[in-house]
Write a structure and sequence with these properties.
Radius of gyration: 16 Å
Strand order of the largest sheet: 5-4-1-6-7-8
Bound molecules: magnesium ion
């Protein structure tokens, strides 16, 4: 069931979802990293995250969904961003994502069909192949696009994650409520 060009996510697939997994590099970032060092010679790595993507992730959590970032490449920049968003983040070595996701599924007592993932490249495939809703950024590699149920119009790090969050919440008929609750809460003195 490939739904491309940002077509709506089918409501039955969306309504099943309880846990949403985001890859980090190439999904929440463009995939580039700035590599350098501090004045003291300490290695320094910088990444660019999209603010609207971050709001989308918060919206999923406000809607009652569990959200987890799972990256196969540990980085302090990722830890800082996850902390800022208040989102659970697992950084595994050598892209061994499947064992940690299996643990998460057990811990949260959900089935594979209740999991969605937004992915971009082959390090995601071991998990992506198993989840109920397979989503891809527009610039994902061919093996990911080939199995995607839904493909964003926007590339990783440039709004694909927000597009996915909006599409998922919209398919669950939660998008308007989440926005209105947010605005209402911030309208109080
Ligand atoms: Mg990636």
């Amino acid at each position: 069931m490939t739904v491309s060009n940002s077509a709506p996510i089918p409501a039955d697939a969306a309504n099943r979802i309880k846990l949403v997994i985001f890859d980090v590099d190439g999904v929440l970032t463009e995939g580039g990293i700035f590599v350098g060092s501090t004045m003291d010679g300490e290695p320094l790595e910088l990444k660019r995250f999209d603010i609207q993507d971050g709001v989308g992730i918060k919206m999923l959590m406000w809607a009652g969904l569990k959200v987890v970032l799972v990256t196969g490449r540990p980085s302090k920049a990722t830890s800082i961003r996850a902390l800022e968003l208040g989102v659970q983040c697992h950084q595994v070595v050598d892209a061994r994502k499947l064992p940690i996701v299996k643990d998460l599924i057990q811990k949260h007592a959900v089935g594979w069909e209740e999991v969605a993932m937004l992915a971009d490249d082959i390090p995601d495939l071991a998990v992506l192949r198993r989840v109920g809703l397979k989503a891809a950024v527009s610039n994902a590699t061919e093996p990911v696009l080939d199995i995607a149920d839904w493909v964003a119009l926007r590339p990783g790090g440039r709004g694909a994650a927000r597009e996915f969050c909006d599409a998922l919440l919209s398919a669950r008929s939660q998008l308007d409520d989440v926005i209105e609750t947010y605005v209402e809460e911030r309208s109080r003195p």
